[in-house]
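User: Second chain of the day. Same drill as before.
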Amino acid sequence: MTTKPSLRRDHWQSMRPFRFLASLFLASVLLISSVAHTGTPDQAFQAARRAYKNGEVAKLEANLPALSDHELLPYVEYWRLRMDIERADAKQIQAFLSKTDGMLVAERMRARWLREIARREQWTDFLAISGRLSTWDTELTCYSLQARIASGETSAVKEARDLWFTGNAQPGSCLPLFESLFEQDLLGVDDLWARFRLAMNSGNRRVAKAILKYAPEAERPSSRDINRVARRPQNYLKQLSMPLKNRGQAELALYALYKAGRSWPHLATRKLEEIEDHLSEENRSYAVGQIAMAAAWQHHPDAHDWFKKVHPRDLDDKQLEWRVRAALRNGDWHDIIGCVEAMSPEKQTTSRWRYWKARALQTTGQQFEASALLASLSNEFNFYGQLAAEKLGNTMSFVPQTYRPNARDVAIIATDPGLQRAMAFYRNSMRYEGALEWAWTVKDYDDRQLLAAAALASRNEWYERAIHTAERTKILHDFSLRFPAPYRDVMRLYTEEMELDEAWVYGLIRQESRFVTSARSTAGAGGLMQLMPSTAKWMAKRLGLKGHHSKLVNSVDTNISMGTSYLRQVMDTLDNHLVLASAGYNAGPRRAARWRDVKPLAGDIYAETIPFPETRSYVKKVMSNTMYYARLFGQTGLSLRDLLGTVSPRPVDTN
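Assistant: Same format as last time:
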């Protein structure tokens, strides 16, 4: 009769360890919860963020009660869903998407969920959800094409063709599409080698080797030969025997000619003459274009003559661009017109090539055609627009000002929940996330709203957001928001001491950091003037700054002091020339000096023919910025052409 109670007692005793663990877990949760709730909402948000990064679900959930009224609660809820995305169901996701409709966080959730259901191959659901996605990347694009094919839309395979032609690796979601394209003969041998060229020219040997799986085995160059050509192209060319055995060997020879041409263009041209009878006419033209382009990149004096061995229609856009640059340095304006007209429509319509075609037309006496191009360009607020206006006799005497937001405009725009979320990110030192939220919120604003938002950003000293937002206006403009001038008392002190043009220094800082004092580049440059650690250390020593450490570059006073001192050094090294010094500040004074010609060169042509794309763009933007700052500071009588000036010849090498 006592058996049952005994069994119950035994069972109860056997459960004691589990009851103890359960009690301990409950106490832990309560402790976590109580700790999480004792701080401010922002502290709870930061704790939730740490928990998300560490994969600690319980800690994240413990902070949710303190975030009920927080601007960034949707992000914490998004993190919670992401932590269990592989087990989530459609109802959970749809509930979140409905709750956050129109927000950036909904866009992120939608993109993440689409990747998950693509992994599950739930293609019908994918198509139903993807229609609301605004921002597509290549991975999702390929998943979308897979979904459409699975639904019976076979024509979607053809749309994947354009994704093939890149020198970069494509995501795994594209591989099934490429397989189908080859199986259906929608990609062929020529397409294979076209991408092989792109990959090799981009320096992506791993991609080039992977592409070769689609080539006939007998035509595949070995991995060893690919590495040899990339490392020692001149040796490969010396050992190259004729006739070329197959397409793979021909492609490696073409790549070796290009690589050798970057350092030894005459060697490459001599070798091309030896093997040209073994190349098709198309490949001969391509090889000449590649060697000439490599030579033009090095500012070789014969580059333009080599280019002229090929008709412009037989060159691709990249080769044509460098042919124009070589023609600019040679003063061959007639050739420039034909080369621009041979470019793709997309290239021809860019500000750059419209401007240089107009200059060529003007120089060759075709004034009416030149004026029409210059007139359309002169309405653009950029380097080429400014130069075009000056060519028409319209030197900028003041900065256009068509609208300035008032306090009421700013107060109204500040109530936008999207901007409030962005400001909350900034408040929590999450500048990158804040910038994304801000950009998403203002993307559909009209000009008045954009300028009000820019003014709000400026008042909070988020100058990079003010610039980005004010630059988006189409009709109404406030250039004081596009070109802010903070820290001017400090700036004047050091620019006057170093005898530097204040407008130019502001133009340079705007390009370097957008006035973000804590800006840090991937290379390690820091602060307003983006000083590299080695440069900062060197300048600190020269200036006698004791106790220098890396964080000091974030100080406005210290950064401007060291940056302007370094700029002075660069100016002294480079003839006190603003264009040369701008190039030298970005790419190094030695490179800037080496890019000069053997004869005097107009500053705009020097800037256009800088080999490094980043520096080329940088110099033009700095000089354009300088003009706007000069006008905002009340400087009159200057033109951009005056600032660009003439770049003196480089010294003759006597060695």
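The CA atoms of residues 263 and 295 lie 8 Å apart.

User: Great, on to the next one.
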